[in-house]
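Write out a sequence, fold above all:
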Amino acid sequence: MNAPMYRPPDPAKGCIFCRIVAGQATASRILEGPDCLVFMDLFPASKGHTLIIPKPHSESLFETPVEALSRVMAISKPLAEALRAVFEPDGLSVIQLNGAAAGQTVFHYHMHLIPRWFGQPLHIHGRRKAERARLDTQAATVRAALLDVMQATG
């Protein structure tokens, strides 16, 4: 099996997530490492809706190198713990869509972590844009909780 070729982020191609990685578009950032970026979804399905992306551009699960997928998954556990500590949801949806037929609308691999409460309908698309100040406040609160979780787990 041939591994897909690495494609660096190309903000010129219009990928909003590549533009966020490059600092050409704003996001309410929670955590940034050399390989991944964690930020609040601008159109949240619920309070605390967070995205994890690998920095190098790849469209979907099918094109993303296993190493990048592993890094996204590795941060998802402490992030889930931080979201639970901050928002106290009844549950957490972890959603990842691949291709337009599956509902993917931003064609840069990403994982959604969505805090959920009983009785709350789940809408992935057609959501309202959140206020940036509210997202920035949530991002700062989740960042502090995430750093606590990461320090506690070593």
About this structure: The two ends are 36 Å apart (CA to CA).
